[in-house]
Specification:
Layout (H helix, E strand, L loop, with lengths): L2 E3 L1 H11 L9 E5 L3 E4 L4 E9 L3 E8 L5 E2 L6 E4 L2 E9 L7 E2 L5 E8 L8 E5 L8 E6 L14 H4 L15 E11 L8 E8 L3 E8 L6 E9 L2 E7 L2 E7 L4 E7 L5 H7 L16 E3 L4 H9 L22 H21 L4 H20 L1 H13 L17 H8 L15 H8 L6 H5 L5 H8 L2 H7 L4 H8 L4 H20 L14 H9 L6 E6 L5 H10 L12 E8 L4 H8 L5 E5 L1 H11 L6 E5 L5 E3 L6 H13 L1
Parallel strand pairs: 13-19, 21-22, 22-23
Antiparallel strand pairs: 1-2, 2-4, 3-12, 4-5, 5-10, 6-9, 7-8, 7-11, 8-10, 11-12, 13-16, 14-15, 14-17, 17-18, 19-20, 21-24, 24-25
Helix pairs in contact: 5-6, 5-8, 6-9, 12-14
Length: about 650
Amino acid sequence: MGRFSLIPALAAVMAVLCLGSCSSSREKTVEFPLVDFSNTTIVGISKVELTDSSTVLSVEAQYIPRYWIEISSDSYLVADGEKYALTGADGIPLDEHFWMPESGEASFKLVFEPLPLRTKSFDFIESDCETCFRLYGIDLTGKTEYSPAKGIPAAVRKTPDFDRPLPDPDFSARETVVRVHFLNYRPEMGDKIDIYVNSMLLGQTAYSAAIDQDTAIAEFRFLQCGPADALIVYNYCGGDFRIAPGDDMDVWFDMRITGWLSRLQAMEQVTGVYPELAGNRFIYASGKYGDLTALCAAYGGGSQYSMNLYSGEFADYKMTADEYTDHVISKYKAAVDSIAAASSPLMLKELQTVNLKEDAFIAMAKADDLRLHNYMNVTGKWDLWNKKFDWMESLHPEHYARFCSLFDINDPKLLMGTKSSEFAEAAADPDIDWPSAAGLESGLVPDLRKVYGLSKKAQDGVLTDEDFAVLESMDNEFYLDSYRKMQAETEKALAELSAMERMKEVPDVDDSELFDAIIAPYKGKVVLVDFWNTWCAPCRASIAAVEPLKSAELADEDMVWIYIANESSPLVKYKEMISEIEGVHYRLDQKRWDYLSDKFGIDGIPSYVLVDRSGQYGLRNDFRDHNNMKRTLSGMLED
């Protein structure tokens, strides 16, 4: 809880008592101040100290061990319309990478020009770059808890009854309408929002919308096929909610509880029948699955028994296939027993169990990847993605059969967990014969294996008569209805799109000559090649941050921007996005993408290849730091 001391008032009293024999110091200290909005969960402010000579922020950072953060010397505070410059730092170098320790936690102080003691709130702006840390409305009045959010209907705000079963999945294909209401909105926080929808057939799909500046509402409309989990991404923060096909729903996003310190404080405000609800329920939603959204907001998505597959420590890379299978089964059984023994409401127990089953299923499907992840984590060799080693024993049919005896992998409720889209992808893996392992002839898993590969074709509008014949032969009409609507939606959107001159035809050359052919027209210029995809949130954020530079600091006829994506970017979304991205664009098939990825050692996206005026090139992933990118390119253009 926040603690507040107003020392000047005490000093004034003491001055009277001492009859002038005591000197007064003008100071104010606020610990753990509440924050109206934070665009980051990496840094939070644990204390603000105001004196006549300075304002000192004590900053707590939490981030991935061995990853870096950076604080700009151009940081400043804003209070009552006035700016107060950063004058120094203690515990962190300015304008340099600060590497997080093994604990993933660090503390440092930032010193600014003095704020007036009368200041009630201020903003911390870590310079004006797109990705810089920003904390708005840092309170100095001593408030210790947030007031109840306003504007949320009572029926949505009330604590739901969680002592009932987890809802069933909705197998239909209909238009869904989502209106996101931003509570405590300030225009300077940004005027656009993304939501990422994870569904059983399409995986993750991104949608963008403008925020109405008068109503602070953004509206989305999209075709939804089957149940889905959605994520709001706004100014690098967000929250999850659940949606059913055909929902006409509202989501209220309380922007005050966005930074990690704010959430920590809110969790101490225990109210209601279920203590876990606390004050940290910053997402409210109507719709068919509104209660499930409330459950996830209250209990952290039901992830308390997660296997933490991607920690790098889930499995030992030295495990044999038998040992790995035993490991997954053992962890699953132990967690199931813990869930059963807990005194939790029924819906939570069922959600936790479904999440656990998804985790275990994915763990079996990705046995090689997860052991390789552990090897890279242990050795620090992070450039081995998708490599296969002879010493790693892959799982065999008998291992999958043993696993499938644990639970029904065909249960449709497996689509109601937090990793439903990843479960669907794993179920469709052509290298694992799940139906044989589980003795299945029909149902969810056999269906997914028949149709999963058709999703990309539908998004590109290229489903064939043969594809539709397969869909028409299936017992569940949901799949035929879904793909018909996907194909029709794609065809309509492609017919409406224009101004596609930025999308270039991929050169018809051998893979080994592809990159040279792409950059050949720009000899003597500086060329930056950006590897990206529409579904990649960091890619989109990076492009948005760089785009203004093209008409400002990096506006030069000798500067060429080339963007390379692959066919995992849905064609309609891709064409929509590149119409707003200045540059030359290529969309490669998977084979050519994989070749270039191997050629340059690309470990993820966004990735950058820099070509100098002489035609020499190399991978420059240090350009993920946009300040470094700007400095380097500016210097090259001046030469």
